[in-house]
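hey m, so remember when u said the tokens were messed up on ur end? i reran from scratch. heres the input so u can diff it against urs
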Amino acid sequence: MAHSPDPLTALDALADANRIRSRKLAGGVATIIADASGLSDLKQAALGVPGVTEARVAMTASQPGRTIIAVGSGKGGVGKSTVSANLAIALARRGRKVGLIDADVYGPSQPTLLGSSEKVTAKDDQLVPVAAHGLKFLSLGQLVSPGHALAWRGPMATGALARLVEADWGDTELLIVDLPPGTGDVQLSLIQRSRPAGAVIVSTPQDLSLVDATRAIDLFRKMDVPVLGLIENMAGYVCPHCGEESDPFGSGGAEAEAERLGVPFLGRLPLSKFLRAASDAGHPPAAGEGPEADAFARLAETVLAALDTVRR
């Protein structure tokens, strides 16, 4: 009696096809049993290390063809979220399929920055990102009513981040994650569960901000996440009346710190009244034309070049 052709032969082309022990397709549901051997060996090896009394081994999986870039800062108020939104849009305008996650538990601002009040929907227990300015995005701010505080402890915040990362991102290539300030649970959860390809750190030029930016860089380095570079935000201000340039937050501090730490300096963004007004109105400058859009376009190009460098 002739056997029916295997409808799951396409799985044979996968790199881990040799782990498949059995497979079947019934009623549109593919059931696959795969070999996960090796995990017990890892556990036993860890238990053999002096001082280790318990070992836990977890399985993780990367998203095929999807690159995560974390955008962080040591201190709040340095313009990290504004940079994240405009960087994501600038990357999308370069032809990349971009997603943006607003993981800032304490101040989710991407719905405002992107001018979108559309509510998130779910399909098959997965969140469906909202489209805006040529990209897809999800924000913790979409999950609560406007003005309501997110009084979440660590496990709730990290669980919410997992839901955002594991959403239905479709064919997204680059996933930009706007992290909360600091070096806490949300940052650690992203690194451990999703392993970013690199991190971008945003700081203003003054020493008070750079001290905390240095801590953020140290966290990513300790967790073996490449630091793509440091951005100096709010660097320089040109008076719209007389044209005189001044430096309310100092100048060159982030560039000097990047050199001292041995990380790339990605660029400098000025303090701009237009950028502030456009951000408040939900019209990201990177989506339009002009000096601000050009600055973010250059920044996107620099970030992509840094990403290519760490991948080599």
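this time it looks ok to me. The mean pLDDT is 85. if urs says something different then somethings off w ur setup not the seq
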